[in-house]
Specification:
Elements: H1 2-13, E1 19-24, H2 27-42, E2 47-52, H3 57-64, E3 70-74, H4 81-87, E4 92-96, E5 109-111, H5 125-136, H6 144-153, H7 161-172, E6 176-182, H8 192-197, H9 211-221, H10 240-254, E7 265-271, H11 283-295, H12 299-306, H13 310-337, E8 342-343, E9 347-353, H14 358-370, E10 379-385, E11 390-397, H15 404-411, E12 414-416, E13 420-426, H16 430-444
Parallel strand pairs: 1-2, 1-3, 3-4, 4-5, 9-10
Antiparallel strand pairs: 6-7, 8-9, 10-11, 11-13, 12-13
Helix pairs in contact: 1-5, 2-5, 2-6, 2-11, 2-12, 5-6, 6-7, 6-11, 11-12, 11-13, 12-13, 13-14, 15-16
The protein binds manganese (II) ion.
């Protein structure tokens, strides 16, 4: 990887003209875009940035109308080598991507872990953007933390390989601190009783999904969920003694029904420069915010936060509040309807129809897949109607032996990663799809 990055960067140093940068809409793509933007600014390169949901021939043709001689694709591009070559063959192409590359002869400057026999999880798009940035200028080590946010968004494991080194840079440059704590979503921002109620990973029997259960649980432990002014407390407001009580309580509740009752504890990654109650203090929550900005088609809010723009930061904070309400609505619907889903031996089909927004169905499947509601190796298939009258399909699994992308391709026109992918189908095909995907999953599993 070192040599690939070195050669790529040396070629890049030669550029004296404006550059067109294209990146992806999710957390990894937005953080990649922020790293590249900051890097090019510092390097005095002229550039313009486009964020896209997906590359396709129309998009690439559109790009070819632009007057740039240099194109830099980041967190996307590797899957579209032939189309890029077809429409941009008279330009110089730079690609930093970790998705599976198309098998196509080319003369691009191309960095991708697959080219050296590694997989998409060995490094994120933002990780590659950072390695390039650092190679260009050692001072850019202060951007390592941005690539950690992107990697978390793509569920990259930071305990080994390149990622371990990137995380170390983020800690060494004073941007990130790692603490052991309750591994729950919303520890910085959610009210304590809500935090427990909506904790699907870890799943807390009798508490997850029930506000009453959550409040009773806190009462049993002798932990107040409101302070003396009647305001709801957050996890941060607990003293050490209470925190210990809570963690022990959660582990005990999970004892007997959960495989690893103590896996509620884990590393929490915090931004040192953010206040305790900041909505982007916790790196995982920051990644969620960026994904929300992308899904709700407001990528500029996400980039704005990353570029430290106070007005866009305010807008992003509003957007996150709405997004969380949508997640909570989706989770409530899921728990109320849990008994009505189509279940196979190793899969579940959640057909939400109009009950969950198509922009939320993938998020719901991800949360369900990572919770202990079903076996963690189950395949979760989500379906939701779109505003255009089609059906959005999302599939998630934690089973490393399954390639969902292969499976979806057999029954619908879709794509993604091996453990997370999606597609769109026509409404008339609803029943046909359910039958075909059930058959395909039964066969494979
Ligand atoms: Mn990515």
């Amino acid at each position: 990887m070192k040599n690939l990055i070195k050669d790529f960067t040396n070629e890049f140093r030669e550029i004296k003209e404006p550059i067109k940068v294209i990146s992806h809409l999710d957390a990894d793509g937005l953080t990649s875009a922020a790293i590249i933007s900051k890097t090019l600014k510092r390097n005095d390169n002229e550039f313009s940035l486009s964020i896209v949901r997906q590359l396709d021939e129309d998009k690439i043709r559109e790009l070819s109308l632009e007057d740039y001689n240099y194109f830099l694709f980041v967190d996307l591009g590797s899957g579209f080598l032939s189309l890029i070559s077809k429409h941009l063959n008279d330009r110089k192409i730079f690609i930093l991507d970790h998705h599976v590359p198309e098998n196509f002869e080319n003369n691009f400057y191309h960095v991708n872990p697959h080219l050296i026999g590694m997989d998409s999880w060995s490094i994120s798009g933002a990780g590659l953007a950072y390695l390039f940035s650092k190679e260009l200028n050692k001072d850019n080590i202060d951007m390592a933390y941005i690539s950690v946010i992107g990697g978390m968004g793509d569920y990259i494991n930071f305990s080994h390989g390149f990622n371990e080194g990137i995380l170390k840079d983020a800690v060494d440059s004073g941007k990130i601190e790692i603490k052991k704590g309750l591994r729950m979503f919303g520890t910085q921002t959610r009210h304590l009783h809500k935090l427990l109620q909506y904790s699907t990973d870890p799943y807390i029997p009798g508490v997850t999904g029930s506000e009453e259960g959550s409040i009773n649980f806190l009462n049993e432990l002798g932990i107040e969920y409101k302070n003396s002014n009647g305001n709801f407390r957050k996890l941060n407001d607990l003293n050490d003694e209470e925190l210990k009580e809570l963690i022990t309580g959660v582990i005990l509740k999970r004892f007997g029904s959960e495989e690893n009752p103590d896996d509620v504890l884990g590393n929490i990654y915090l931004l040192k420069n953010e206040d305790e109650d900041s909505f982007i203090k916790d790196v995982r929550e920051y990644a969620t915010l960026l994904n929300a900005c992308g899904r709700l088609r407001k990528p500029s809010f996400g980039i704005g936060v990353l570029m430290e723009n106070p007005i866009l930061r305010e807008k992003a904070s509003e957007l996150l509040k709405n997004y969380k309400m949508e997640i909570i609505k989706a989770l409530n619907w899921f728990h109320e309807n849990k008994n009505n889903f189509i279940k196979g031996e190793k899969f579940v089909i959640i057909n939400a129809e109009d009950n969950i927004k198509d922009s939320m169905i993938g998020t719901l499947c991800g949360i369900v897949s990572n919770s202990n509601v079903y076996d963690r190796n189950h395949v979760i298939v989500g379906m939701a109607h779109t505003l255009e009258g089609d059906i959005k399909i999302s599939m998630r699994t934690n089973n490393p032996k399954i390639d969902l992308r292969e499976i979806i391709k057999r029954v619908a026109d879709g794509g993604g990663h091996s453990n997370s992918c999606g597609a769109f189908i026509k409404k008339e095909k609803e029943m046909e799809f359910i039958e075909e995907i059930s058959n395909a999953l039964t066969k494979v599993l």
